[in-house]
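Hello again, I could really use a second opinion on something today. I've been puzzling over a protein and I'd love to understand its fold better. I'm sending you its amino acid sequence along with the backbone structure tokens. It would help a lot if you went through both lines with me. I've dropped the whole record in just underneath, so have a look.
***
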Amino acid sequence: MSNEDSSRRHFMKTTAVAAAAVSAQSSSAAQSPGGVESGGMRAGQWPASRPLGKKVLWNELARSEFPALLENDPVVILPIGSLEQHGPHCPVDMDISIPYHLAAATAEGIDDFPVVVGPPVWTGFTHYNMGGYGTITVRLETFIAVVSDICRSIKANGFDRIIMVNGHGGNVAPVTAIANKLAQEDIMTLSLPYWNLVDQEMKDWSTADLRGPGHGGEWETSFQMYLRPHLVHMDRREAGQVRWPYSPAVRKYAHVPERRRESANGSMGDPFSASAEKGERIFGLAVERLTAIVKEFHATPLMHYEEFGSDTKVLPSLF
């Protein structure tokens, strides 16, 4: 095993988000000849389609390595997600694993300037999934405070360009609020849910759900079948058992903020239509588009709060 593989595995072991992945990976390798798993991914190799070899993770950097990064307008991608039940067949770290893998693949593919993957924020706002085992949630106020302070810390280290890539639906509105809140402190961020990168393709390429990522359905299961097939319990898949009481017209505006009131088994969508091939296709396109955003963000001069002056002054108490 190379030093880089060793370092990666150490990170995975010491990160709560990935602890289950390491255990399942070792078990799968022991059961497969030569350590080759059912999806074609060799145990210890991550992700399946690309070799390792470039240090991009914030937590793997030594203190002495940061100054050199700051010399060329670096970009930090901060993966944000949650730990929550995803039906009977998918790992609970689904919503942080996808943005984390997207961020790492994007960072490793850019050589023109430094791109650093911030420490994954797995503490999501997901009280409505507490009806199923494995879910860990924080209060809305806690989530906003934690992510805001992480971004403030990144800025304090000298990194002016931050992209928050979110993987959890319950975080969408809070992350948007955080971006607006931080702007007043002259911390300019981009914030996006990863599925916005490929929203139309998820609809066009779907064979069942005809929608965005769902919840343990066609697309989320496809991502995991490509990235980490050893963590998908194929024999436990169940199609979502929807309990929505409203018509499609009203569902555009109605919210039922508790998963068991939405779905009898915690799934939303059809995991039987998922495939590793779909996962690879949609993942590759998302990386391509995130890469383009990162490059433009790097090349564009930063705009600053009140850069063009102001007729009034904001009271300090409003910060």
